[in-house]
Amino acid sequence: MSTQTFTVTGMTCGHCVASVTEEVSEIDGVEDVAVDLETGSVKVTSTTPLEDDAVRAAVEEAGYQLA
Ligand code: 9UX
To answer: Where, by residue number, does the polypeptide cross the bilayer (predicted)?
Structure first.
């Protein structure tokens, strides 16, 4: 099991959190996504470590950016 923490910019409300959570959750191997709206911290638990580019693509698909 792998846990990684990313920082996402641009989230300002609960819908933002839901969008990022949904997109990141769709990445293969992801088991849990925990978003802190205040800090932009996105903690991702997955079966194997994720490529930064995969996470970046998911975050951008949701309409936000990796810091
Ligand atoms: Mo509402 Mo969060 O437009 O961007 S989803 S602030």
So the answer is: none
- How many domains does the chain fold into? 1
Q: How many CB atoms lie within 10 A of CB 65?
A: 14
Q: What is the ipTM of this complex?
A: 0.85
C-alpha of residue 2 to centroid of ligand 1, in Å: 29
Report the Cα 52 to chain-centroid distance in Å.
10
**Containing structural domain, residue 32:** 2-66
12 C-alpha to center of ligand 1: Å? 6
CA–CA separation, 29 and 13 (whole Å): 26
